[in-house]
Amino acid sequence: MDGSRAQEPTDTEGAHLVLYDGVCGLCSRLTQFLLAHDRRRLFAFASLQSAFGRDLVERFGRDPDDLMSFYLVTNYRTPGAILLARSRAALFVAAGIGWPWKAAGLLRILPTAWLDRAYDLIARHRYRLFGRHDQCLVPRPEYRDRFVD
Fold first, then answer.
1. For burial by CB atoms within 10 Å, which of 23, 52, 72, 79 has the most?
2. Consecutive H or E run containing 96
3. Domain region containing 47
4. Is residue 1 part of a domain?
5. Which of 6, 18, 7 has its CA nearest to residue 143?
6. What are the pLDDT tens digits along the chain (149 aa)?
7. Burial 78-101 (b: 16+ CB within 10 A, else e)
8. CA distance 12 to 61
9. CB 24 within 8 A of CB 126
């Protein structure tokens, strides 16, 4: 159930679910960035701390208490949903929001282990570099329909 290769995002509104750490300053900024740049509205959002997010991560055999990973569930409403994690999730999202971010897809030629090491380095220091919030992001009214939890 865990996909190792990120394919191109499909053009279905809200087809893919971004699972993010709701108290992480970096994750909050990235979520706001995606909301502003996802013109095709491909992505829906849920925090890893939400009941929905925890349940979904657990269904894919992952630890819902491990907040060190960024997850994306492709086609999350279908039986064929695939969980992407860390660098592969990030590359899938970059491809989905279009140019110039889609150019990050060139990084797919690198081994996942290398990309995940770089991801892990940032993840280990994200609270110190970008801060930590006491509560999850409250979406602006125009974006509320994009949040599952």
1. 72
2. helix 86-97
3. 16-135
4. no
5. 18
6. 444 444 555 557 668 999 987 766 667 778 888 888 888 899 999 988 889 988 998 999 988 877 777 888 999 888 889 999 888 888 888 888 888 877 677 777 777 788 778 777 776 666 666 666 565 566 677 777 888 87
7. eeebbbbbbbbbbbbbbbbbeeeb
8. 26
9. yes
Within 8 A by CB and 6+ apart from 96, the residues are: 9, 16, 38, 40, 42, 43
SS (H, E, C) 129-144: HHCECCCCCCCCHHHH
Q: Is residue 10 part of a domain?
A: no
Alpha-carbon gap, residue 21 to 25, rounded angstroms = 9
* Closest listed residue to residue 108, CA positions, set 95, 91, 93: 91
